[in-house]
Amino acid sequence: MHITLEGDYAVRIVSCLCANGRRMDAKAISEETGVTLRFALKILRKLVAEGIVHSYKGTQGGYELARPKEEITLYDVMCSIMGEYALSRCVDTGEEECQFTCTNPHNACPASCKTRKVYTEISQLVREKLRAVTFADLT
Question: 40-97, pLDDT tens digit by residue?
Fold first, then answer.
């Protein structure tokens, strides 16, 4: 299991903005992070929409952090790009019972899926750890 490439790049981009501590244009961010300009712009749009990064237009435009790096967590960035973390798709349904395996009559899984409980606990632990790490911790 891996973080998506887009999630990894988003962490690189926010780390770059933290390390530079100033407004940067997308081209400079792209060059410093090794993310293509097109992909960096896509990620930056999502980070702006989530209030993690500010965008400025014009000749003095660019991108900068919208909040202090002490207030931005790995969870914030990951969720802005990939959505809420869930170890398994059955945890990600918002339903009390898994709609993927537990209701399948050909599956040996009982109606109250035991693995779903474990997956839910693991997912919660990962989310808590991501919330505990700020970009100030990483720079």
Answer: 999 999 999 999 999 999 888 999 999 999 999 999 999 999 988 888 777 765 555 5
DSSP 53-83: EEEE-STT-EEEESS-GGG-BHHHHHHHHH-
Q: N- to C-terminal Cα distance for the chain?
A: 25
Q: Between β-strands 62-65 and 53-56, what pairing exists: parallel, antiparallel or unpaired?
A: antiparallel
User: In angstroms, rounded to a whole number, what is the distance separating the alpha carbons of residues 95 and 66?
Assistant: 34
Q: What pLDDT sits at residue 104?
A: 57
Residues with Cβ < 8 Å from 105, sequence gap 6 or more?
A: none
Interaxial angle between packed helices 26-33 and 5-20, expressed in degrees from 0 to 180 and rounded to the nearest 10: 110
